[in-house]
Design goal:
The protein is mostly beta strands and 589 residues long. The protein has five helices and 38 strands.
């Protein structure tokens, strides 16, 4: 099926059954809404163009995740995240891809977590064998940060089975420290979202983990065995609705390489949901990190920081638990950014097909308003949404909106041509004044490709002053979308190094003031769908040639730097101001 054929598909009619028996149905929540009518195209040019350069860049190994062509269990349908990281501190983004396994039949030996080193010429070298990261596991989520403040970013990966903490040794290798760190829990757990977060502001990264479902293959029947697990009359896997839930966990960093489970003491343990992507940031302007969990087919969770080592769950009161009708949605991925340039972090959350994804506008005090319809995003309801971001792809000073899509049951499109497994990614251009416009044919050849995609990482892998995109595709090689921006728009990148705060500066916010705009961005431990993006914050500046930077460090301190020139990367050390400036050379497309 071509992109044009897929785009001609109307919104799917999804029967969401609610009887007691059908709670064991395939069950991802959807409102069965009709897409809003599209307005007249703006006709404005879009100077960003994406080209998939994965193959020539050396990303040729498929990400194995479940059986090809079918999904008998929910375990193999969800997929995993991906990461842009600089594991060797050379100033160039490297790539981490995760992996699943086969359910029936042998798992290929190539199915493993993979690390690719950036060669600084548009290509990557697979250094998995040397790194020690090459595990063949059911991996789902990843968070990257320097938990021991030794100057090298470490990696935590959630899995079905046991999660894994990899310590970065600083020489290109990693050591599994899970058990020694006190993070090896007994039993089998379905870890999904995860993020580093310094919730107590002691300068050390703590760890938050969400769980998807309690999955026991011995107790869950495969697709076709339970007649209640069907979609439009066809058998599908069971879940998540009807499957047991497991609460999130919070681990406090003891400062000696070990962690203590403080979930109950912190007020986390009493809340459950089908948790997926996690984002930790200061959403209410009190200089303490809060934690938001996108939940699939259950109310999403918002843990507001009480400043005393505890949290209060306030998603419903804050307006980000359920939809405007009071019903749960299939929360998958999270884009965190400032779409209206008011200096506050807004939230974009992806959902299942026949439902709108949601855009929440933050008033700066942790109260959110659903602006999905008024912003123009309700025109797209055809696809299942996953990884997402609010990022400025054309450097015009306004955060655009990107998300990947892909159906969950590959066997359905053999019988239901209006439910294709492989679907295109979606890009909305920010028109300003709170309005977006979906770009159907203007963003380059990569946007025409069809995949069943999940996790996405965003960052500038070729150091040319724009935002590129790394995409996890189910049972295919990843996509690497190089952004070839044209035009004269300016930009500014900000890299933060904590001193009193955690060295990775996870939880910090930067507000860039340029012209009449005040755009907020945060250093996140996770976002998108179970993924990690470039820790260097990227601000498009449009026609402005300088910006004023307000840095809100994770420990609550604030620094202001005036008249920072555009078109460069500035490295800012806490308490010392700018310590390094670097200009990039734009590469030819």
């Amino acid at each position: 099926m071509t992109r044009r054929q897929v785009l001609s598909i109307p919104a799917l009619a999804l029967p969401v059954l609610r009887s007691a028996r059908s709670q064991r149905f395939s069950g991802m929540a959807s409102r069965n809404v009709t897409a809003a009518p599209r307005g007249k195209p703006s006709g404005l040019p879009f100077p960003a163009s994406f080209v998939n350069v994965a193959r020539q860049a050396g990303l040729r190994a498929p990400v194995i995740f479940g059986d090809a062509g079918k999904a008998d269990y929910i375990l193999e349908s969800i997929g995993c995240g991906a990461a842009f990281l600089d594991y060797d501190n050379d100033g160039w983004l490297d790539i981490l891809t995760l992996t699943g396994r086969r359910v029936s039949g042998p798992t290929p030996p190539s199915a493993s977590i993979r690390l690719y080193k950036n060669n600084r010429d548009g290509t990557f070298t697979d250094v998995t064998a040397h790194s020690g990261l090459g595990r063949s596991v059911w991996a789902f989520g990843v968070t990257v940060g320097d938990y021991d403040n030794d100057g090298f970013d470490d990696i935590f990966i959630t899995c079905w089975g046991s999660n894994i903490l990899f310590h970065n040794n600083g020489d290109g290798t990693f050591t599994d420290m899970t058990e020694k760190a006190g993070l090896l829990r007994p039993g089998v757990h379905f870890g999904s979202g995860c993020t580093w977060v310094d919730y107590d502001r002691d300068g050390r990264l703590d760890l938050f983990v969400s769980h998807y479902v309690v999955f026991d293959r011995e107790k869950i029947q495969p697709r076709g065995k339970d007649p209640a697990c069907n979609w439009r009359g066809l058998p599908v896997y069971c879940g998540p609705m009807g499957l047991p839930q497991e609460p999130c966990r919070l681990y406090r960093n003891n400062g000696d390489g070990t962690f203590t489970d403080v979930s109950e003491k912190a007020g986390i343990l009493g809340f459950k949901g089908y948790g997926l992507t996690v984002a930790a940031a200061d959403f209410d302007g009190d200089s303490w990190p809060d934690i938001y969990v996108a939940c699939d087919s259950s109310p999403s969770l918002f843990f507001r920081n009480n400043h005393d080592g505890t949290f209060t769950e306030r998603a419903l009161e804050s307006g980000i638990a359920v939809n405007e009708d009071g019903k749960e949605q299939a929360g998958m991925g999270l884009g965190i950014g400032d779409f209206d340039n008011d200096g506050n972090l807004d939230i974009f959350k992806t959902h299942f097909a026949a439902d709108t994804n949601v855009l929440y506008r933050n008033n700066g005090k942790g109260a959110f308003r659903d602006v999905t319809t008024t912003s123009g995003l309700a025109v797209e309801t055809r696809f299942v949404g996953w990884g997402a971001a609010l990022q400025d792809f054309d450097n015009d000073g306004l955060a655009d909106l990107f998300f990947t899509t892909g159906m969950v049951s590959p066997e359905l499109d053999r019988d239901l041509p209006d439910a294709p497994y492989k679907t295109p990614s979606v890009l909305f251009r920010n028109l300003g004044r709170g309005k977006f416009e979906e770009l159907l044919d203007l963003a380059g050849p990569a946007m025409k490709e069809l995949h069943s995609s999940r996790g996405v990482a965003f960052g500038d892998f070729d150091n040319d002053g724009d935002i590129d995109i790394l995409i996890m595709n189910m049972n295919e090689p990843p996509s690497l979308l190089r952004n070839d921006v044209t035009g004269s728009h300016h930009w500014l990148k900000v890299m933060l190094i904590g001193v009193e705060s955690n060295r990775s500066a996870v939880g910090a916010q930067v507000i860039a003031q340029y012209g009449a705009s005040r755009q907020a961005q945060a250093v996140l431990g996770q976002s998108s769908f179970l993924s990690v993006s470039d820790r260097r914050l990227h601000f498009g500046l449009g026609s402005e040639t300088e910006a004023k930077l307000e840095i809100r460090w994770p420990n609550g301190k604030v620094e202001v730097i005036e008249h920072v020139a555009s078109d460069q990367l500035v490295t800012i050390r806490e308490g010392s101001g700018i310590i390094l400036r670097r200009r990039f050379t734009r590469t030819a497309g």
